[in-house]
Amino acid sequence: MERDYRQFQTDLIHLQESAFLAEDFFTPSWLGREVAKQRQKSMILEQTPWYYLSGTGFYVKEQVGQLIRNTRNSLSSVAPDVVEIELEKTKVDIEAFEDEYLKQMPGLKFNLAWEGEGGDRHIVCPDYNNTSWESVTDLKEREGVVAEVRKKVEEWLKTAPADSYAVIISPEGWSGFSDASGDAVHYKETQIYAIHTLDNGEIEARTFRYEANILENEELQRSLGLGIDEEPNQKERIKNALRNTLFVRGDDQDRSISSFEDIVNKMQSSVGGRETVYGTRTFAEIRSFLKNPEFYSKRNLLTERLIRRFQEYARHRISEGNVFGQELDLQIALGVTVAQLNKSYREIHEQENVVYALPRYKQDLDEMAMIVFASRANFVNYEYERKDLGLRPGCAGGGNEKVMINSMGVPRIGELTKKNNNETDDDYEFDHIGKCINCEGDPRALGPCDICERCDAKMGGKAAKRAA
Predict the structure, then answer these.
(1) Segment holding 52, helix H or strand E
(2) Same domain for 117 and 220?
(3) What residues contact residue 41 under an 8 Å CB cut-off, 6+ apart?
């Protein structure tokens, strides 16, 4: 073993001799050179450029568009502060994408906190530079019901005693959002937002993700002691599920839950006691996350350095002013960053199997892993990484083109379905194909709750009106 370690140290010395070259990889200068190289290549292509990462859930064009719009619209006196706020938002979005998409984590920390005193007391999102919870909640999501529920929960929490819980169930299906082409965004999973009041007056929150249809959502709500309003219209059924929020006071002796784990147990029961939440992820992993959230928040070795490199590059590029090519360069730089992070998950995690076999030497191996990755940076096939991202398995992987939505301060991935010109704001169409959750017919054209047209008609929904 000692001989193996001496050989390992020798190999590491050889790597460190070229480390100064690899270290350049983590500088904004390297990223600037890579941007220039990719810009030249993109000029001869007519299709959608790879660096948009379209179809993956991290849509670079919109991310950069928002970054530039918000910094350009600010006054010059506050512009530096706005730039830092926007770059911090980009950091949070990349980390959330890593947690939800690359790590496929079924349990996520939902970072909320109180700010202000008395009547000015309100909930903020520390990950977004203490931006108010209200401001990160889009009024368009599910035709305003998400914003309505957020406000109701925040008001209730202001007077709730310690050890109280508010639990929001946000079903899969219709979201109320569409992309620039008018294609509808559908959520492919149910998300549970649970907020707990602490003895010191602060709050802690968690997000749980799992595959559960509207029938299973309603079964969960019944198990939590909530009533269910019978609603034949599929859009209204989703809205009702959202509005049907659980409020449990800490001084209530007859309470349906007394911990986050109680919620997870009822989630599992609502889907027949199955072991998996989606793909290969399990309810046991959520319970493990609740016991040790810091372990699950551990980042990939390269994440921090790749994000910092992008921030330094973007900070410099924005400081140059509204110059020609700025937006394109930032798009390429962000695309490179996320694609390289994906590559690291494919390759370096294989090396981490060796790392954990030799825990004494983990620090040295971490350093070696970064040097090895950086030394191979010139061999990244970005188009391949984009395709790999779009095909990743699990709750958000595979299927149709993906988009990332900020839902109440929690990044959430949805899928696009093609626009139907017959649909109106008060209406819905059977616009995607799959298995009906009611009759289990497959394949069927499905509505917002994944209920087929025939079952919808029997329930008195939109299809019944059409038949009449």
Answers:
(1) none
(2) yes
(3) none
Residue 134's contacts (CB-CB under 8 Å, 6 or more residues apart) are 122, 123, 147, 150, 151, 154
Please tell me the distance from the alpha carbon of residue 428 to that of residue 463, in angstroms, as a whole number: 10
The verdict on 159 and 90 lying in the same domain is: no
Tell me if residue 421 falls in helix, strand or coil: coil
What 3-state class would DSSP assign to 273?
A: coil
Tokens of 13: 């010395």
The tokens describing 255, both together, are 């309470």
DSSP string, 114-172: EESSGGG-EEEEGGGTTEETTTTS-TTGGGGHHHHHHHHHHHHHHHPPTT-EEEEEE-S
Residue 438 structural domain: 429-467
Residue 133 sits in the same domain as residue 249? yes
Residue 353 banded pLDDT, cuts 50, 70, 90: very low
Judge if 311 and 438 occupy the same domain.
no
Angstrom distance (rounded) from CA 168 to CA 89 = 24
Do 66 and 114 belong to one domain?
no
Biggest CA pair distance of the chain: 83
Mean pLDDT of 450-465: 79
Asked if 453 contacts 445 with a C-beta cutoff of 8 angstroms, the reply is: yes
Are 329 and 445 in a shared domain?
no
The encoded tokens of residue 175 equal: 């979201």
- How far is the C-alpha of 285 from the C-alpha of 107, rounded, in Å? 8
Nearest to 109 by CA among 300, 303, 268, 290: 290
**pLDDT per position as a tens digit, 120-166:** 899 999 888 888 999 888 899 999 999 999 999 999 999 999 999 99
Would you state the structure tokens that stand for residue 108, as one six-digit string?
Answer: 């996520």
Distances (CA, A) of 460 to 395, 435, 454, 465: 31, 20, 10, 8
Whether residue 410 lies inside any domain: the answer is no
- Flag whether 414 is in a domain: no
Q: Which residues pair with 446 in a beta bridge?
A: 432, 452
pTM metric for this prediction: 0.79
Q: Are residues 8 and 56 in the same domain?
A: yes
Sorted by sequence, the CB contacts under 8 Å of residue 320 that are 6+ apart come out as 326
Number of domains in the chain: 3
Containing 204, the helix (H) or strand (E) segment is strand 203-210
Strands (E), 358-453: 402-407, 410-417, 432-434, 444-446
d(CA 124, CA 121): 10
13 residue type, one letter: I
